[in-house]
Amino acid sequence: MSQQSASHWEVFVLEYARAKDQPIASLINGTHDQGVMDTPFSFVFARSGDRNVLVDTGFMREGLGEEMSVRFGVPDWISPLRLLEELGVKPEDITDIFLSHAHFDHMGSVHKFPSARLYIQKRELLSWHEMLTLPKQFDYLTAIINPDDMRAMFTASIDHRVTLLDGDRENALPGLHARLGPGHTMGQQFIVLETARGPMVVAGDCIYSRVNLTGHNHDGCYVPLNNTVGSVYDQLMTMDRIKTAVDGDLDRVIILHDIDRWNNFELVKEIDGFKIVRAA
Which InterPro entries match (predicted)? Predict the structure, then answer.
């Protein structure tokens, strides 16, 4: 595949897991009567020049990662490392990782990339450290956090491989912008990539579905998430920033738990039922 210019990123979405029979109402507000769905999980690989970047990493089914996949009903999984191999990418090839937030399904493979520089919002990382110190009655807040991932981040910090972002960072890498997007978590971020088709947003878990941006009745009224530790106000403000970043073109928003499984993007290949698609 050809190298892209420094300002144009080539972008792939890699599907690595699916939750079974997850209530839609556990994710999206106002869907109490809409039953269940098999929820896809994904991460993004992007490259430009000599930069090979991940936005999130998926998780490994080992140790606490295996326990959490069982607890949250995620029976279907393929190694994120195997998916990257399908694109000719080895763990040591990854130069940078931008973490949307610290939930286990987004940060659970971070220890597999020992050469990468890690970018996370300072508010995100430190807020989880604070919440983990709270008494046991507050465990709801940290139910989706794998302590081993936090340990991996601490090790990477000792190795001077962690960059703590304090709010928006334009051109964190050339043509890659990190934007603070709280709501789902205290310090989540979404990533804007400059591509040949225009700016594209990797939304993390700022949204779970297009309906979050279009409204249940396609009336443009933003729909909040139900799975959150932050505020509804912050969620909706973040959704507005995402929609603005793509000038309202929702085909340029990459939803990591996309119910439609990225049918608007080009299918590159399918491995054991999991998709790799090219978004730009």
Answer: MBL_superfamily_lactonases, Metallo-B-lactamas, RibonucZ/Hydroxyglut_hydro
Structural domain contains residue 116: yes
Looking at the 3D structure of the chain, how many domains does it have? 1
Which DSSP category does 4 fall into? P
Residue 187 lies in a domain: yes
Let me know: does 154 contact 219? Beta carbons within 8 Å.
Answer: no
Reported pTM: 0.96
CA 10, CA 141: separation in Å to the nearest integer? 36
> Using one digit for the tens of pLDDT, what is the confidence trace for 80-123?
999 999 999 999 999 999 999 999 999 999 999 999 999 999 99
User: Does the residue 53 lie in any domain?
Assistant: yes
Burial category of 260 from C-beta neighbours within 10 Å (exposed 0-12, middle 13-18, buried 19 and up): exposed
By residue range, what is the domain housing residue 217?
Answer: 10-278
Report the pLDDT value the prediction gives residue 7, as an integer from 0 to 100: 66
Q: Residue with structure tokens 């297009």?
A: 210
Domain membership of residue 4 (yes or no) is no
User: The domain spanning residue 210 has which CATH number?
Assistant: 3.60.15.10
> Are residues 83 and 276 in contact, defined by beta-carbon separation less than 8 angstroms?
yes
Contacts of 40 (CB under 8 A, 6+ apart): 15, 17, 18, 257, 258, 259, 261
The half-sphere exposure of 56 on its side-chain side, counting CA atoms within 13 A, is 31
